[in-house]
Amino acid sequence: MTIAAILKHKGTEVVSITEQAGMAELVRLLANRRIGAVPVMNHAGELVGIISERDVVSALGAHGAAALDQPTASFMTRSPRTGTPRTTVAEAMEVMTDGRFRHLPILHEEKLVGIISIGDVVKARLMQQAQEVDSLKAYVAA
Fold first, then answer.
1. What is the CATH number of the domain that holds 10?
2. What range does the domain containing 134 cover?
């Protein structure tokens, strides 16, 4: 199973923010959309980073409320790891686990086409395992 299958089920709408947007705007976006991370795009529409709720907490811990007046670029993870629609679920799970992050931007021909969470990956893996079990049961019963 590939990331393309996850995106087909989940959809490809991606909420993003600019690197100049303030942290307060980011916090509102995360809260209103009930999401945990947002890709950060430059003025040319290129992925330059990702910023998550963990980054917000770290910024507040280090700088207090003054962090909310800073741009997202100050606290984002630059040049994040990415996947493609052809990345397998197992590969995505390994990259996310090894890197200790929960969101993976998906690029196709260097254009952002989606973002997946570790929850999306786990759900896909569980569905894949359930299909394998059903296939084995059908084989044994035949």
1. 3.10.580.10
2. 3-141
